[in-house]
User: Fold this.
Amino acid sequence: MKVSGPKVSVCMPSFNRKEYTIKAIESVLTQSFQDFELVITDDRSDKDTVDAIKQYMVKDSRIRFFVNDRQLGVYGNLNMSIMHSRGEYIKPICNDDMLAPRCLEVFTEVMDKNPNVSLVTSFTKAFDGSELIRDEKYFEGIRLLDGKWCQKSLLFDGNWVGALTYAMFRRRDLYVGLFTRWKYWVGDHEMWIKLLGTGDLYVVPEILSFIRVHDNRESAVHGVEFRLITERLMLMNLAFDFPHIYGEYSREEKRAIRYHLLKRLVREGYSKGGLQSKFKMLKIGFSDLNKRKIVFLLLLVKNFYRLFRESTAA
Assistant:
């Protein structure tokens, strides 16, 4: 039996940041498209943040608010929001970001007109310390793109689809699973790859979300460097082991992706001073490769040779 509900569920995982959360809520409530619910799941925030959300819930019946029994982290908290939601389309938003007024309207129209589209994203603009516009330069194409092709491009080139606030997807496609909690840096990246195994991607060439740049954002508080590369290598191995979920890859494609990621790992190790980064690089490279250590060894030799030539030339 189909449960009746709104067309769109806007899912907001919340944790502290009262003032930012208020702005995020207001950006949802002032959308030109009004057939939505705003599902906020809170990860044990401070009292001020919880009280502020409750005040909005009293004012607007479309807001549904839940507090987790324990802290679940970003992706665990978002999963709770999705499980509480009822809409046909799922629109995540981080509680320090904002949506443009036409975001839900445009995304819903794309989904309604393109039943084969499983994921939609758009151009974005940063604010609060940055005026960066994320437009066609950051995407591998705009408008309708083949999902299977996008899967491979995302695994090789990184998460050019964008972060949680950028995207919307269909509830019906969640048979691929929810967001993986332990993937701190590539949880959204992995989810987009899984969803694009079910349908196509649509990139809207219009700024429909605003990403806040501030000193307390996750990427500023926690260094990404080696941890990001480690999780991308883990994601690569998952993709190769479960092709029915993450897509089929030829031997040449696997070799190219592995080489690309290990080359980035080596470059990261050599770009930093001191021995600690070198040991991290070695640890990650050898632990990931298992029987394929020869690739990593060749990359090391190549970079040692480059450094030797540069030192002798100087």
Notes: The mean pLDDT is 86. The two ends are 74 Å apart (CA to CA). The CA atoms of residues 159 and 189 lie 5 Å apart.
